[in-house]
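Quick start: load a record and inspect it. Here is Beta-microseminoprotein:
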Amino acid sequence: MKALLCSLMVWSTFVTLCNAQCYFMLNENTPGDLSNECKDLDGVAHPLSSKWKTKNCEECSCGQDGISCCNIAAIPMNYDKIKCQKIFNKKTCSYTVVERKDPGKTCFVGGWGL
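Running the structure step on this input writes:
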């Protein structure tokens, strides 16, 4: 079980580094076991068909086969990356794009993606 959790954690880190926006974690059920909950990577149990938001700005849901999670923070695209920088606010799960020399000034963003 620990090996499975470790491999899932490594896999989810790899997926995050690859800029994937959604991922799926299989339940640890044994054949014939019809569990009515899912356990996340932190070991927290969630009821079947439930949804929740994580501290990493993901929305997750528990299904019979496992947990599905997707990023909910829109990522700024098409902005002047030399003049401007994106800043992530973990509390609001949102980005702002501001000038590097004057962070009080926002920059134009041509589009947002998930």
